[in-house]
Amino acid sequence: MERTFDFLVIGAQKCGTTSLWRGMDSHPEILTPSDKERRFFEVDEHYQRGVDAYIDSAFGDPRADQRLGIVSSQLMPPRVESRLKVIDRIAETCPEVKLVALLRDPIDRAASFFRFAERRSGRGGTDFGAFFERALRKHGGLESIPFVAAGCYGAILESYAARFGRERLLVLFTEELEFRPEFLYSELFEFLGVDPGHTVDGSMRLNVGGMHERISEAAMLELRTELQERVWPHVGDRNVRIGFNWWLRQVWNIEPDAEPVTIPQAVREQLAELYLPDAELLEQRLSVRAPWVKRISEERSGGSRPIASPG
Question: Sign of torsion, CA 75 76 77 80?
Answer without folding.
Answer: positive
